[in-house]
Structure formats: structure tokens, C-alpha cells
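Is coenzyme A placement plausible here? Inputs below.
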Amino acid sequence: MAQGNRRVAIIGGLRTPFVKANTVFNDLTALDLGRIVVQELVQRYDLDPNEIDELVFGQVVPSLTASSIARELVLLTGLPRRIQTHTVVRACATSIQAAVNVANSIQLGVADVGIAGGTESMSDPPIFTSRPLAHALVSASKAKNLAARLKPFQQLKGKDLLPVPPAIAEYSTGMSMGDSAEKMAKENGITRREQDELTLASHQNAARAWKAGLFKDEVMNVAVPPKYKEIAAMDNLVREDASFEALSALKPVFDRRYGTVTAGNASPLTDGAAALILMSEEKAKALGYQPLGFLRSYAFAATDPGEQLLQGPAYAAPIALDRAGLTLKDMDLIDMHEAFAAQVASNIQAFESKLFAQKLGRKAALGEVDRSKLNVNGGSIALGHPFAATGARILHQSLRELKRRNLSKALVTVCAQGGQGAAVVLERE
Ligand SMILES: CC(C)(COP(=O)(O)OP(=O)(O)OC[C@H]1O[C@@H](n2cnc3c(N)ncnc32)[C@H](O)[C@@H]1OP(=O)(O)O)[C@@H](O)C(=O)NCCC(=O)NCCS
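Reply from A.M.:
I modeled the complex. C-alpha cells:
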């Protein structure tokens, strides 16, 4: 039966290029993107499908025709059907949750090998009908003759015919993510300058990483339908020519009058998928895999979404570090998901704040964030943010960079809808 103490290795990972919604992946669904990445991941790592025990995958904006995406992925990719699957959603931390679920199975001894990831297509969101139109359609489908079939539609008003797109807003507060980022910028005194500087660094670091070929083991090529002649080989949101002047010239989007959040310093709506292979340390040895690194600890935490919606990482990181028995100083790299530059700056401020530490009942602030260790190969603002794929992207990217630098430990954080935050401590050796 379960042992509960096995070490969890991350063998490697892969992602599709991350592309702006409604561009090159316009004809691919989230399921397509997930299939493409899982198939190539298994091939690239020469992983015997018969060794896979579990596949956990997520998608934040759901496909109504394939709601159990993890199961559909196993069926579509031709992996053995006995593989255990479940679909997870934890907003932008979805593939952190997927990785943690697989890690828990491995740690408990109920699985040896698992795949975890997430996929998102913002080019293919579900578009709903209004409630009155939906009711009319159902009534019409039950009617016995043409007159009765038409009757339910006669009561509809013009606005009932308008499609209802999915909201990127908090259900409980009605505030959009962008509104919440504005609120955080204002309450924490985050300037436009600071946001644009973080944004510039994100683009410059991502562009440098692409130029240096650092992503070649992380990002696969995707043949683009319908003709399959064009190959998407790179993220298409990274701006090599990003400049502070161009960023400063952008108008605020969410609070047009007094705001500081722009299309530049917000993460863009993105399509893409990412996945990881996890194994118990023993199994990795037995199969001859050299792990990229290990999942040392993790934590999820949450705050009131009406307060500072995207401050979750500042709540989760201290817990994950405590669980690892480590401090922020021990971290060689910090990879923080960039939902908005205002959110990154706010979380850094909280990491460094004694007052925030007191709020958490802690004696001292978590510590200073060394900017030279932060998102060194770019973050979600430049690379893009397919909600469910981002966590897996960051875990892999962080471990690869640790390996490149021959360093040991990294802290990964992701903020998420509902005031949630995720933090993971990764280690090599
Ligand atoms: C902010 C947001 C509304 C902007 O959407 P958009 O208007 O489609 O954005 P675009 O990419 O078209 O950019 C708007 C303009 O800014 C420009 N721009 C964007 N980034 C820029 C940069 N780094 N430098 C210079 N210009 C830039 C674009 O070129 C475009 O210019 P144009 O109008 O002359 O073509 C959208 O990205 C969004 O909703 N983001 C937040 C998503 C979210 O809430 N995520 C959840 C976080 S967890």
C-alpha cells in the first residue's frame, strides 16, 4: 500500500509555441493542442506508453464538446486506454495542480510514471446563447408541429439573440482581472514606470533566450492547419524590439482615465499547450532517465478575491518554502507568472514587506527578490499565457535554466482566479 514518501522527479517537458489568440492556431482546438504536445512529448523522451500510469490535464476555458479533456487526450493520442486520467481546473495554476496531483500519486506509491499538463485555446472559446434563447430552443425541440415550434421564439427580444462570450471576470466580485490589477497597482502604489520596466525585462529576456536557442528543448514545432505548410516554431508575442518609449505610449485599457495597466504590461490572450513527465526517483533510475530535477515542496493558498485578487503567490510562497525547509535566499532562480506587471510588482512588494509578513503572522518578511534571478528567460507577458498551460511551461523552463547554470533551487509562483496562489520549490540533485 501507499508509502507516502517517495521523491518525485520531473524528467522533462515540452510545450507548443505560445501564440496570440486568433492568429496561427486559429484552426486548432485546445484538445488538438494538447494531443500534439502529449504525442511529441512521449516520442521525444522515448517513453514507453506502457509505463505511463496516470495522465492529469487541465483546461481553464472549457470545451463543451470534450469536457473531460484528460481522458480525451489519452483516447486521441493512442496511449493505452487503461491509463488513469482526470481533468483539473485551478484557473491559471491549472497545470501546477496537474503536476501536483501526479506528484501526489507518485509520492503515495499509487503511480510510478505520469504526464501532467494543460492546454488552452482562446481562439476557440465556448460562446453561449442567452438563457431565454436556450429555453426557446429546448421548448421548440419538444414541440409537435411547426406552429408550436415557432411559438417560443416569438417571445424573444432582440438582445436575447446576442451571443454570450465567456467572462474573464470574477464571479463573486464581477471585477475583471485587469480591473483587479489596476486596483492592486493603486493600493500598492505601483507606478506605470515600474510596470513598464518589468514588461521590458520580460520581452528582453524572452527575446534573448529565443535568440540563444535556449527554448529548443522546451518548444516543439507545430504544423499549422488547414494547409499544414506553415510551421509555427516560435512564440509570436515576444517583441525583440520592445522599448520603454513604445510601452510608455500605450493607453491604459481597463481604467482609461487614471489607470496604468495597458495591453503592453498585461499578459495577452494566448493559445498553447504544455506538458511534463514525472516519475518516482526509483522508476527514473530503473528506466535510465536522468531527471531534470525534483519537486521539493508546494503550497496553494488563497485570499479574499475582493481584496487583492492576484496576491496569491505572496500567501503561498512562504508556506512552500517552509515546507521545503528553505528560505527565499536559498533560491537560485525565481520564476513568477506574470499575469500583469502590476501583479508581479505587488507580489514582490509583499515578499519584501514586514507589514505583509505580520498580516501572515510571520516574524520577518520573506526577503528581497533579487531581480537578476527573476524570470530570467522571460515571463507570461512576453511569452504569452495560455491559462492552463502556463504552470507546466514555468516548471520546465525553470528547471532547464537551473541545469544550464548548474544551480540547485528555484521558486515558481502562479497567481490565479479567486484570490488563489500556487508556489512550488524545485531542486536538482
Ligand atoms: C489587455 C488586453 C485587453 C489587450 O488586448 P488587445 O487590445 O487585443 O491587445 P493587442 O495585442 O491588440 O494590443 C493593443 C495595442 O497595443 C500594442 N502593444 C501591445 N503590447 C505592446 C508592447 N509591448 N509594445 C508596444 N506596443 C504594444 C499592440 O501593438 C496594439 O497596437 P495597435 O492597436 O496599434 O495594433 C488583453 O490582452 C487582455 O485582456 N489581457 C488580460 C488577459 C487576462 O485577464 N488574463 C488573466 C491574467 S491571469
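Short version: The CA atoms of residues 408 and 428 lie 5 Å apart.
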